[in-house]
């Protein structure tokens, strides 16, 4: 089972859209995918059509509140969405208090990692939507991941946010030598008609040569429509250019993991590299 965190210390760069779109393609490919919403604003939870106060199951806060992690307890925190194979651990506003709630608890940074290990036979991929603030929630997501996807809007302020995210990786690795982060920068909201987008993409490719994806996610108004319909774009209309771009990204990530973490790639996930992208 692979675990991908989608993280940035700047809001509005496409984190939730990235998680929803990759999850949509994985579901469309008949794979087992779990999405974990770790942002107290619960944007991903809402994107998939749920409100945390109306869910029958527990949410992520309840997972963190467990004194003893058990497989049964973690499974009880999972909501099965209307899309077969696409499951959710929902966020709630109570997550905003999690740093205080976990204060003094031993092994606080690896709670999510240990939880996912208990259910690793249930899924091909886990996608984690991170909050933009460095704290226990983001640390847990980063530590649990085999790859961190860093969406970066192709504009100046987002580039500054990227610098902060990379510094965070460096600081955490220096603080704990056993931690090493593999990350991929994904240029988002690219508009080739604007000078700002072109210059920003050029900057990313020049300054982050080995870490940046060699393609980009274009600006696409259908992302807004898909979120309004609470339906990931690949499930709403896979032919849209934004959906097509995320399919390319998914294939790139799978191929990358086959080279770096082949033992974590299930045969079913590896098989999508032979697919034509239709999801049929």
UniProtKB/TrEMBL annotation:
Signal peptide boundaries: none
Record field: transmembrane: none
One family name in Pfam for this protein: AAA_31
UniProt domain AAA: residue ranges: 3-178
SUPFAM superfamilies in UniProt: P-loop containing nucleoside triphosphate hydrolases
Domain of life: Bacteria
Entries under PANTHER family matching the protein: P-LOOP CONTAINING NUCLEOSIDE TRIPHOSPHATE HYDROLASE, PLASMID PARTITIONING PROTEIN-RELATED
Name of the protein described by the UniProt record: ParA family protein
């Amino acid at each position: 089972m692979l675990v991908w965190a989608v993280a940035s210390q700047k809001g509005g760069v496409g984190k939730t859209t990235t998680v929803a779109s990759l999850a949509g393609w994985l579901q469309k490919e008949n794979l087992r995918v779990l999405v974990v919403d770790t942002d107290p604003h619960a944007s991903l939870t809402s994107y998939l059509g749920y409100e945390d106060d109306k869910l029958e199951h527990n949410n992520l806060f309840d997972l963190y509140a467990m004194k003893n992690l058990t497989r049964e307890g973690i499974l009880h925190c999972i909501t099965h969405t209307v899309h077969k194979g696409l499951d959710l651990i929902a966020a709630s506003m109570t997550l905003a208090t999690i740093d205080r709630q976990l204060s003094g608890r031993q092994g606080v940074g690896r709670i999510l990692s240990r939880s996912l290990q208990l259910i690793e036979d249930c899924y091909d991929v886990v996608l984690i939507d991170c909050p933009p603030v460095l704290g226990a929630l983001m640390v847990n997501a980063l530590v649990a991941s085999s790859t961190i996807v860093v969406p970066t809007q192709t504009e100046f302020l987002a580039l500054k946010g990227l610098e902060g995210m990379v510094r965070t990786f460096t600081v955490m690795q220096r603080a704990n030598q056993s931690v090493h982060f593999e990350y991929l920068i994904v240029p988002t909201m690219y508009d080739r008609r604007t000078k700002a987008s072109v210059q920003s993409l050029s900057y990313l490719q020049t300054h982050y040569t080995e870490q940046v994806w060699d393609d980009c996610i274009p600006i696409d108004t259908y992302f807004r429509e898909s979120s309004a319909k609470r339906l990931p774009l690949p499930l709403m209309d896979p032919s849209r250019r934004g959906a097509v771009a995320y399919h390319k990204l998914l294939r790139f990530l799978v191929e990358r993991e086959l080279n770096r973490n082949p033992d974590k790639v299930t045969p079913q996930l590896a098989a999508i590299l032979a697919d034509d992208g239709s999801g049929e």
